[in-house]
Structures are given as C-alpha cells and as structure tokens.
Amino acid sequence: MNDHPSKALASFAANLQFDSIPEPVLLRAADLFVDWFGSALAGKGARAVETIDWFAQQMGPATGTSEVLISRRQTSPLFAAMVNAASSHFAEQDDVHNGSVFHPATVVFPAVLAVAQSIGCSGRDILTAVVAGYEVGIRIGEFLGRSHYKVFHTTGTAGTVAAAAAVGRLLQLSPDQMLHAFGSAGTQAAGLWEFLRDAADSKQLHAAKAASDGLMAAYLAQQGFTGAQHILEGPQGMAAGMSSDADPDKLVDRLGERWTLAETSFKFHSSCRHTHPAADALLEVIKKHNLDPEEIARVTTYVHQGAIDVLGPVVNPQTVHQAKFSMGIVLGLIAQFRVAGLSEFEGYFNDSRVVAFSKKVQMVLDAEVDSAYPARWIGKVTVETTDGRLLSGRVDEPKGDPGNTLSRVELEQKALRLAAFSNAATPSEMQAIFEKIWHLAECNKIASFLAISSV
Amino acid sequence: MNDHPSKALASFAANLQFDSIPEPVLLRAADLFVDWFGSALAGKGARAVETIDWFAQQMGPATGTSEVLISRRQTSPLFAAMVNAASSHFAEQDDVHNGSVFHPATVVFPAVLAVAQSIGCSGRDILTAVVAGYEVGIRIGEFLGRSHYKVFHTTGTAGTVAAAAAVGRLLQLSPDQMLHAFGSAGTQAAGLWEFLRDAADSKQLHAAKAASDGLMAAYLAQQGFTGAQHILEGPQGMAAGMSSDADPDKLVDRLGERWTLAETSFKFHSSCRHTHPAADALLEVIKKHNLDPEEIARVTTYVHQGAIDVLGPVVNPQTVHQAKFSMGIVLGLIAQFRVAGLSEFEGYFNDSRVVAFSKKVQMVLDAEVDSAYPARWIGKVTVETTDGRLLSGRVDEPKGDPGNTLSRVELEQKALRLAAFSNAATPSEMQAIFEKIWHLAECNKIASFLAISSV
C-alpha cells in the first residue's frame, strides 16, 4: 500500500528496474556520469576539498574498496563518498535540475560509486541506482519549494535523501527498508545558505555530508534501523520544519512516467547557475553587435527572486568561489572574454577591468522571469552602450538545458578541461574513463577508475 | 571585537580557562560525567545502538586511540564519539537542561572523551572543554526557543554546535577558528521529531550525529576550513531556518557569570523528562495517601504545551522506547511500583494493569505551568479516587533538578544500576571509573576506562 507520499516515493525507488527505464534516460545518465567525473577531478588541490580529504584520512581506514578520485587512494565507502562529493561540488560545474534548484550529481554519483566499488555492482545496477537517486532527490527539491531554498541549500537537504535512495537501491533494500532509510536520511538533512555571505567553505561540506549521511541511512536501514514513516510530509518532518510552501503532490508527480533525470541541465559557465541565463543573454547581445566591454555603459538583468536571494548578498567578492556568485563579475568575464570558465575565474575574478564592469551591472526582479522560474530559467538583459543605444537580449533556455544541451563531444571536452585544470588525470586516462562510462551498461562488475588497488 | 552574538559565544568558548570556572561548577561537571557514564553503558545491547556500532565497524578503522564503551574496542575519535553518543541517549536517563530542553551530556561527553583520548589531554583540559560545550549548547537551545523545539530535536541541532565547541576547546582553537567551527557545525545541525510517532530509532542517530558532526566541524576549523560567521543569528542561519521566536540575547546571557552547566538536571525516572514533574507530583499524592493503583479512578496532569507537543502523539505505545514518551504508561508504572526505572519499563510497559491505568490519565494545558516553562518544570496533578475523593499534588522542582538534586552516592547508585542493566561493566569496574572521575582534575593524561589497548 503506497498510501502516503513518503511511502510511494520510497517504494518507487526500491522497486525501480533497469528494464523499465527508457533508453534516452539511461543514455542521459551516462552523460551525467561523464560530466560528474570531470567535476569530481576539478576539486583536486582546492583547500576546502583537501581539508575534507585530510579529515577522512585522520578518521577513516587507510585501506578499503572505494576510491578517492583526487588522491587515487582507497578507503571505506563512507569516506570515499564524502571526499568525492566535496570535490565534485567545488568548481561549480556540476549539473543542476532547474525545477528543484538541486544539484543531483554531486551527491548521487559519489555515494553510488563508493558503494558499488565496495560490493561489486554491475553497470546496470549503477545506472538504476543513479536514476533512483535523481528521481527521488529532484522530487523532494520540488516538494520543498521556494521557501525552503531561501534559507536551505537543497543539495544538502534533499541531497541526503537522494543519496540514501541511490545507495538503498544498490543495497537492494525492500520498500519498507527504503522508507526507513528515507526517515534516517531526512532527519539528518541540513545545509544553510548563511555561509555564502562570508565566502566560507560550507558548500563542499554540504555535498560531502549529504552523500555520506545518506549512505549511512541506507546501510543502517539494511540492518533494521528504523526511521520516521512520514519524514517528508509529516507534521514534524522536513517540510514542517523547513518549508512554508511544500506541495506533497510533487513527491509523486508521474512516478515512472516523468523522468526528471532527463530534465537536468549541464552547466556551461563556471559559476552559480542563477547567473547563467543572464550570461547567455548578454553573450547573445555582445556577439550580435560585436561589442567591446568599453562600449557598454550599463547592463540590467531581469531575474527571478531566487537569484536576488542567492546572489544579492555577494557585493564585493574576495575569492574565486564568491565571485562565482557575483552577477557583476560573471557578466564582466563574459564581456571581457566571451566565456566564464574556470581559467577566467582563476586569472581574472579580481582584475580591475572586470571589477569595474561589475559595477555597471544591476539585477531587477522581473515578473515574467520570476513566474516561469523554477520550471524555466529565462535570461533577459538590456544593455546601454556608451554611444546611447539600448540593446536587449533574451534566451529561453540557457546553454546546457535539455533543449539546448551539450553533445557527448562537448561533455568530453568539458571534462578534459576540468581534469587538466586541476592536473588530476591525463587526457589518455580521461579517454579510458569515457570509454568505460559510455559502455557502462555492459560492465559486469565495476572496478577502480584511477586508484591503484591497495589489496 | 565580539561584535555579534555568534562571535561572542565562540570567543567565550575558545578563551575559557580552567581557573576561571567556579569550583561548584567543576564539581557538578564531574557529577555529570559519572551520570553520563552510566547512560553510555546502558545502551549496550540495544538494537539501535548496536546497529550504529556495526556501521562504525564497517566504515571506521579497526584500531585507534579512542574507546567505544559498549564494546571496549578502540577506533578513531569520529566513530568512538558516534557510538558512545548513540549509546548514552538510549536509556532516557541522561541529563537535561530545563530552560533549553537540551540534553548536553549525550553529545558533549562522547566528543570530548574521544578526542581527549586521541590527543592525550589532562583532566583539567577535559573539564574545561565540557564546560565550554555545555555553556554553548544550552545558550543555543535557549536562543532557538520553543518554536524550534516543536519540530526539531534540540539535542541534535544545538548539540552539534555544543560538540564543536567542546572539541574546539580541546583542540585549542583560536576565537576565529572557533567561530568557523560554529559555522561548520551549525550548517550540519539537524534532527526532526517526526520519528517519535513511529517509535523509530532516530533519537540515538541524532545524538550520534551531533557528537560526530560537531567533532568534524572542530577538526576542519583547526585546519583552516571556514564557516559562516553568523551561523546562529544570521539572515540565512539556524534561527532563520528553524525558529520563529529566536532571541539572540540568550546567546550571550551573562557569559562567564551565569554557569548553565550547574542548572542541568539529572533524570531520576527512566522516561522523557516531560513526564517527570507529573510523575513526582503523583508519587507525592500516592505516598501521602498510601494509595493502591486500584483506588485511583482518574489522574489529570496539568502540563506545559511542550509536553502536549511531544507526548500527545504517543497514544498506544508499542515499544519500551515509545512507552517512555507516554504520560499514561509512566504514571501507570509509578502507581504500580512507585518507581519508573529501566527494569520497570522493560518488564511492565505493556502489562495489562499498567495499560489499563494509562487510560485513566489525561493531560491538560495549564497556564501557570506553561508560563513557568521552560525555566521551571512544575508538576501538578489531581487524583480522583474510586471512593470519590479529589486529591491534588504539586512539585515545584522535580527530583534531579538543581534544587532537588542527586547526591554523589545517589549518582553512583544510578550509574551502577544502568551498568548492571546492560551488563556492560562490573560493580568493581564501575567503582574504579568513579574514582577516576572524582579525581579527574588531578589526572595529567586521560587513558582508557574500559578498553584493552589495541596498540
């Protein structure tokens, strides 16, 4: 009896079969895996990520079955998931689902990879678990609504349950066990946006903890540990505590018919997703009129309230990470280089020309953009030129969205750039990884990608 | 500059010196340590606790410096803190601070003990860290207010920051590092009451995660990992997300003058603290009039709203743990045995006489009791006898509160009963533990209490 939303969603995740997942969804899952892999490698050398890896080394076993991608060592699944999750949420290049404002890859893939390597899963098991994690996490993000996202980092909160669902599917939990796993995951769900004002390191911590806490919830459930039955929609559950506009119907929206994984967007720019629609719209104007930055007197971006909530507090970014949440700096890089990638951020986020340009940018709440959000992320800008022209640009789907997606060649190029940026893997190693992932469904037992086995 | 509450509280914790703590507070800290030790041992054999220990064995190192009390093995501080915290929150006998409705011992002592054994601290270091943890956690619980406690388990939320403060003090964090530790702890803070309706295992999970997550936050801060500067009172911080009546003044209430640790209550009955005032008041009536349970026709307890919120949903308790949250069952045990200890719960929570008595009990919201709460937990009952008498009882401080506290002999007896209940330590082992703790301030380097060293 799937007589309430938490139970229906848990049963869906527990019962999901590889053969019932449409082929395009499976292909997209492999695309997302390749895209995630690049992000996971890009975090190598980043202080926040390396500090979490240091902690994992202090507290976790020195050997194990599951690989830490940035260091190529092996440890227990808990710590591999923790470090790989932190790492893949560093470069702000991991995927995002627009409607839920949730980054699924950075919590789902680390948990799945770590556990799959530990218990020896097939590629089909892995793809099934990944789809379960995405479908659960995205629906919970949509359910928790905009009020939740104003204060809570959905990737930390919904992400904990997503990781539990994915690991629970790998561990072949029964529907009842899966519901207990949801209960233990949801009651650990956390992550506050407060860190953003101080450019603090919490974003990586949120991903790390969502992946590892969700993993813990699933392992505990397998052993009979019980959790709340209505953790999502109950009167003292997640929504009761952390949302004022939750909609339980979203939890079970067309389960088995609508595949939210295929709605997920790849990130093209190296910045917070809230900046992408405006960046693409500005790029359109710049290219069409072949504008130099010096010709631009003012840029007005017409945005949704969520963009103002997240980006508004970032006024004088002092770090690369903070700059990725500055609409002004992002548009300054676009104006200067016509691209806002990792290298542009590292080299120029505090360049005087870019900073000067950032002062010309303002955000304005727009009724059309706001009402379309979060289902659609419309980009609208007006540009005033120094010679008095008023130019406007608009994109209805930013680059990387399902209707404007990246090809497998573009995904490989992006992953190669990310791996090269952090010096975490050679191009030939990356090619071997791509081959494995494109043929994942044929793999009988997943092995290490980069680690030299400690066994 | 302690220019905002999060910073002032973090600076207080970082700067706290043993010599500045009044002697009665230090003596009470040792009392609380002995009291905690009994609770930590009482969880041995409990399914939920043993399952968390199983997970710790799967994911953590098989050797280490820090002892798991219920199994006498050693592992890394993270997992020792996790298991000891789960264990000490099982029997519902650990201490509670009334004003904050927060159980400090179950999160502070496990984190402190695990880290102190790892880095080799003195007894004075330990006592100082414990006081730091209590003072921080209790003030955060008071700050988050009653609206928070309606949905969130304060021991899970405030407890995470309390553990970070205690471990941070042991690690000798600077005030700036301590503030970062608060940021990383607060953004992980979680724990929802939803599990209570289903008698699920989450209460032990909340304690386990608060202790281990707070520990992680402090270790990360020591290595330069940054956190939000205003995690407690900021516009996207803990109170913004999880409270509607937060009062920042509570965070810094008479720091260094008021010692909230000394306000903490010992639990005498083996049940949720919300049942204790009524249990003591009923016991007073029963003793005064020498009543048998059969002579009682009806009991009305006059309670605060928080008691109704937490106990109200528990209508037909199916497990010992759930019975500890049933006002009817608790009063039934009191009426039957004049005591509601672990043995009475284990043997009689579903005894037909006790269940029948529980149906005679009702809770009524009382204006006087509610307005005194949470500073004072007044117990008021009226008892209708079968022969038509209307008797009333009242206690202004339930047994175990600071004005009605337990002596060191009573504390030792309670700890001996708890250790004997779970068969976790012999009376002579317990006597040796008591000796060590009563002389803790003279100890130069803490060693294991029960573990056989794996080194």
UniProtKB/TrEMBL annotation, chains A, B:
<dbReference type="InterPro" id="IPR045336">
    <property type="entry name" value="MmgE_PrpD_N"/>
</dbReference>
<dbReference type="InterPro" id="IPR005656">
    <property type="entry name" value="MmgE_PrpD"/>
</dbReference>
<comment type="similarity">
    <text>Belongs to the PrpD family.</text>
</comment>
<dbReference type="InterPro" id="IPR042183">
    <property type="entry name" value="MmgE/PrpD_sf_1"/>
</dbReference>
<feature type="domain" description="MmgE/PrpD N-terminal">
    <location>
        <begin position="8"/>
        <end position="249"/>
    </location>
</feature>
<dbReference type="GO" id="GO:0016829">
    <property type="term" value="F:lyase activity"/>
</dbReference>
<dbReference type="InterPro" id="IPR042188">
    <property type="entry name" value="MmgE/PrpD_sf_2"/>
</dbReference>
<dbReference type="InterPro" id="IPR036148">
    <property type="entry name" value="MmgE/PrpD_sf"/>
</dbReference>
<dbReference type="Pfam" id="PF19305">
    <property type="entry name" value="MmgE_PrpD_C"/>
</dbReference>
<dbReference type="Pfam" id="PF03972">
    <property type="entry name" value="MmgE_PrpD_N"/>
</dbReference>
<dbReference type="InterPro" id="IPR045337">
    <property type="entry name" value="MmgE_PrpD_C"/>
</dbReference>
<feature type="domain" description="MmgE/PrpD C-terminal">
    <location>
        <begin position="269"/>
        <end position="439"/>
    </location>
</feature>
<protein>
    <submittedName>
        <fullName>2-methylcitrate dehydratase PrpD</fullName>
    </submittedName>
</protein>
